[in-house]
């Protein structure tokens, strides 16, 4: 699941590793997602999240556990934008459009993570997940960048297409381990909660 909305999401700011909480709207999104999951009768055996507050908070709201009981997972922390952190997406020009439109052409500035680095750590986490008990139900709360990467790796699509599917705030997908391999079994992407990518900006 992607975390709920934050104030920076609403302002179209790159928050990356910036550690900010959910907005009121983000809390409402998480509670609506909780009601949907509860209605499906899903009970989680484990609760994991990126160590950033917005993900930990979402995981706690979805399951009703304390944030201190959520298992932090460093490998699914958000993409590190380095010197671009906190800047408005629309102000960053063609290289930021490439970030969403053509990831392979994006040039990470000095001090920022590359796409390859992000995909490598996310893929390592997915491989570890494939070794987990296939009957265990685990909630994993991540971010727009890392969750899109997870989905793309699981469906086998190229990196350049990772933003063609929009996962809105509190959007999620379900993956199951079958014959030792994780496979996506259903999607609930909450496109009505979309904040990025920005269609008008990307079409320039």
Task: Give a quick summary of the entry.
The protein is α/β, with parallel strands linked by helices. The chain has one domain: 3-Layer(aba) Sandwich (Rossmann fold).
Structure description:
- By secondary structure, the protein is an alpha/beta fold.
- It has helices at residues 7-10, 24-39, 53-63, 93-101, 115-129, 144-155, 199-202, and strands at 46-49, 71-72, 138-141, 172-178, 181-188.
- The chain is globular and about 45 Å long.
- The mean pLDDT is 93.
Please give the alpha-carbon distance between the first and last residues.
Answer: 30 Å
The CATH class name reads Alpha Beta
Q: Give the averaged pLDDT, no decimals.
A: 93
CATH topology: the name is Rossmann fold
Structural class: alpha/beta
Tell me the name of the CATH homologous superfamily.
Phosphoglycerate mutase-like
The proportion of strand residues reads 5-15%
Q: How many alpha or pi helices?
A: 7
Global Rg: 16 Å
Major beta sheet, strand line-up: 2-1-3
Which regions contain 5 or more consecutive residues with pLDDT less than 50?
Answer: none
Largest sheet: 3 strands, parallel
Q: What is the strand tally?
A: 5
| Portion in helices | 25-40%
The helix/strand order is HHEHEHHEHEEH
* Whole-number total of structural domains: 1
Structural topology:
Layout: H1 7-10, H2 24-39, E1 46-49, H3 53-63, E2 71-72, H4 93-101, H5 115-129, E3 138-141, H6 144-155, E4 172-178, E5 181-188, H7 199-202
Parallel strand pairs: 1-2, 1-3
Antiparallel strand pairs: 4-5
């Amino acid at each position: 699941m992607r975390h709920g909305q934050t104030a920076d999401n609403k302002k179209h700011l790159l928050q990356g590793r910036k550690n900010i909480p959910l907005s009121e709207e983000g809390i409402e999104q998480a509670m609506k997602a909780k009601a949907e999951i509860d209605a499906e009768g899903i009970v989680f055996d484990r609760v994991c999240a990126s160590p950033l507050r917005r993900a930990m908070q979402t995981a706690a709201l979805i399951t009703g556990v304390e944030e201190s009981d959520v298992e932090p997972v460093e490998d699914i922390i958000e993409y590190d934008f380095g010197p671009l952190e906190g800047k408005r997406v629309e102000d960053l020009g063609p290289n930021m459009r490439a970030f969403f439109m053509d990831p392979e052409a994006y040039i990470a500035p000095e001090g920022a993570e590359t796409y390859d680095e992000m995909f490598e750590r996310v893929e390592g986490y997915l491989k570890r997940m494939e070794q987990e008990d296939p009957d265990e139900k685990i909630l994993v709360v991540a971010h727009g960048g890392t969750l899109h990467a997870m989905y793309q790796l699981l469906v086998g699509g190229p990196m350049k297409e990772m933003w063609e599917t929009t996962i809105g705030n509190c959007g999620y997908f379900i993956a199951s381990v079958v014959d030792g391999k994780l496979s996506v079994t259903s999607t609930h992407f909450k496109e009505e909660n979309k904040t990025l990518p920005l269609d008008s900006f990307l079409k320039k």
